[in-house]
Amino acid sequence: DSGVTQTPKHLITATGQRVTLRCSPRSGDLSVYWYQQSLDQGLQFLIQYYNGEERAKGNILERFSAQQFPDLHSELNLSSLELGDSALYFCASSVEGRTGELFFGEGSRLTVL
Amino acid sequence: DAKTTQPNSMESNEEEPVHLPCNHSTISGTDYIHWYRQLPSQGPEYVIHGLTSNVNNRMASLAIAEDRKSSTLILHRATLRDAAVYYCILRNNNDMRFGAGTRLTVKP
Question: Distance (Å, rounded) from C-alpha A44 to C-alpha A19?
Fold first, then answer.
């Protein structure tokens, strides 16, 4: 158990819909990362937050957004969903944002029908 | 970001040591070398990291070349549970980007 909690574990929805994925980091970790992993692709870095502020942005679509709240949990919002958005979405946390190790949650599996 | 190069796949026999190589010829002086692994149907798992000196922990050892342009992750006795994709990553900024990694197959 990494200490990072992601909900929901599984989500099935239809194209055009909007979903929110939630991540609770390990106690004491200030930084949260989001990744997308599709069947035919590796881990794609989406976005990183540190203590509530966005610090780095990767291959995140404009239809996706995220935020980190004062209690340090984070949410990833996916809107106008397309079939290609079906993937595993992982959250990771670290104590600080630049050099420390990342601890990953078990992921949220999104299926868009 | 400085990049890493790893073999696409490797095979090992159970209970034998495994040496997973990683080349990072453009590494900068402040880049940390991180290793993660991803078992089937699971999230990535931190294995080990280091800056200049060799590192050991309960999971593995990390051997870093003197010029830091390459490193090797050493699993001392591979088990079937070590079959996974192993990622070598250089870390010195806010984002953390994974490459394709090395898929390790462990044969009984």
Answer: 19
